[in-house]
Design a protein that fits this description.
single chain, about 270 residues, alpha+beta, Porin, 9 strands, Outer membrane protein beta-barrel domain-containing protein, signal
């Protein structure tokens, strides 16, 4: 016959084991419950709009008329004609111009441009000089919109008219005359960055490389000759339409008040 102590040993061990398992499960579940409670409290602090997708910022370029004036230094290179480098007749000089564009999207602008360069005499020709007028059309890509710093890059094509002056010998002595060249800029690549201290007005720097060929030259019937112009300088940018004028749309989850039904005391509507 088993003793009384042996009879109660097994039930006591079972009760102790069940208590240990229950306490362990409560300890494991406690961190998860606390995390859930914290998340609920954060959502309550953020309000009913927590997690709502914000509407896109206002489009500050599409349809805008954009104006720029620029000034800098232009350096010609290449050839005026076959076997006749432009460096023999002209050197670099002051250039200035203007751009007019219209925004096609948030980052893209269709732009017309024009510039005029007054080229100086090279070291080997004191009575030489030159002038260059160009008109172009291209696209400008802006890396961002609505920011104070606005980097951009452009590509286009254009028409160029060059007038170079030098002296030629004759029976009566040296005669100074103008020689007119007409060319096609097949690639006009520019890049720069503008800084807008105020919304409609900015200042920036730019660098531009134009490459093309003279299709018409005075007294010369040989094949086309390639030329190039490299220009660096400063520019002023103007956006006549003020930025950030579009009011933001109503936030998601915020009920709109029905017209003609203002809220009365206690939240009820009165007609």
């Amino acid at each position: 016959m088993r003793s009384r102590s042996t009879r109660w040993t097994a039930p006591a061990l079972g009760v102790a084991a069940a208590g240990w398992v229950l306490s362990a499960n409560q300890a494991l579940a406690q961190p998860a419950d606390q995390g859930t409670t914290t998340a609920v409290e954060e959502d309550e602090e953020l309000g009913p709009e927590a997690g709502a997708k914000r509407p896109a910022g206002p489009d500050e370029r599409t349809g805008h008329i954009l104006l720029q004036g620029r000034a800098g230094y232009s350096q010609p290179f290449g050839s005026m004609a076959a076997g006749q480098p432009v460096s023999e007749k002209a050197s670099g000089g002051l250039a200035f111009g203007a751009n007019v564009g219209i925004g096609l999207s948030r980052v893209t602008v269709l732009e017309a441009s024009g510039s005029y360069a007054m080229l100086s005499a090279p070291g080997r020709c004191n009575d030489c000089s030159g002038q260059s007028l160009d008109l172009g059309l291209g696209f400008v890509y802006h890396a961002a919109q609505g920011l104070a710093i606005d980097p951009w890059i452009s590509y286009g094509v254009g028409y160029r008219r060059g007038v170079f002056t030098w002296s030629e010998g004759s029976a009566a002595g040296p005669v100074t005359s103008d020689h007119v060249f007409h060319g096609l800029d097949v690639a006009r690549i520019a890049l720069g960055v503008d800084f807008y201290p105020v919304s409609p007005f900015g200042v920036g720097v730019f660098a531009e490389l134009d490459a093309g060929t003279y299709l018409s030259r005075p007294g010369e019937s040989s094949g086309a000759a390639a030329y190039g112009f490299f220009q660096v300088g400063l520019r002023l940018a103007l956006d006549p339409v003020p930025r950030s004028t579009r009011t933001p749309s109503a936030s998601a989850g915020t009920p709109r008040r029905i017209a003609g039904q203002p809220a009365g005391p206690g939240g009820s509507a009165h007609r």
